[in-house]
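ok, trying the design again with the full structure, not the truncated one.
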């Protein structure tokens, strides 16, 4: 049977090789980011836009560390599909609900990797008439940058060039609910690739 259960949310999932950023470490850094952002945008009523889906957990914690008035929205843009490589093409699936025209926009992302997603997304927001766009990312994979990401001003952690999951970040839609960021065991994704089947099919019976 594929039914699994573990002790508590803190228990390391069997598919996770190592925890990179624990709940405690995340909490402390996000409190600092909240202070930095609150200072930078005081008196400006910035529009914070979480990039779905990966940033949803980070975004929820980040806005609760803010101590100035802000407005909150979400955008959805996909560049990865179910694989591990950036497609380089951005598909905007959900645009702003709040008009970004004339606003100071803070885009909140999970990971900046090649930078392709945010490069295109920032341009799109400036085209919509935003006054400014700056980016706040939990993780920065600097080593992999292929496109310039202007205004990447708020960074949680410089992340090693390794595939991570958890704290909102998925592999094939899995592991988003883990409360920490960790390395996924290579055996998990190499198995799915070698079996040549969509990864989520392996887990369908668990839903
Ligand atoms: P890029 O900057 O290459 O356009 O795309 C960044 C996006 O790729 C991230 O927001 C995230 O969705 C995905 N990504 C990049 N690195 C990783 C990783 O280590 N793990 C996971 N799960 N997604 C990643
Ligand atoms: Mg993302
Ligand atoms: Mg993804």
């Amino acid at each position: 049977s594929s039914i699994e259960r573990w002790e508590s949310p803190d228990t390391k999932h069997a598919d996770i090789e190592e925890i990179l950023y624990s709940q405690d470490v995340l909490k402390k850094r996000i409190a600092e980011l909240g202070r930095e952002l609150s200072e930078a945008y005081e008196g400006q009523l910035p529009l914070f836009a979480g990039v779905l889906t990966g940033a949803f957990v980070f975004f929820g914690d980040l806005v609760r560390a803010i101590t100035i008035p802000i407005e909150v929205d979400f955008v959805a843009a996909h560049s990865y599909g179910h694989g591990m490589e950036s497609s380089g093409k951005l598909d905007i699936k959900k645009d702003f609900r709040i008009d970004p025209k004339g606003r100071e926009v803070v885009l909140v992302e999970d990971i900046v990797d090649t930078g392709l997603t945010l490069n295109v997304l920032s341009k799109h927001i400036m085209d919509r008439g935003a006054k400014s766009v700056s980016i706040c990312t939990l993780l920065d994979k600097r080593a992999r940058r292929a496109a310039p990401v202007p205004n990447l001003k708020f960074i949680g952690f410089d992340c090693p060039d390794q595939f991570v999951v958890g704290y909102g970040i998925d592999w094939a839609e899995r592991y988003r609910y883990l409360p920490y960021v960790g390395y996924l065991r290579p055996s998990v994704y190499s198995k799915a690739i070698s079996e040549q089947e969509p990864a989520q099919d392996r887990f369908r019976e668990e839903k």
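Keeping the full-length input from now on. Residues 23-40 form the longest helix (18 residues).
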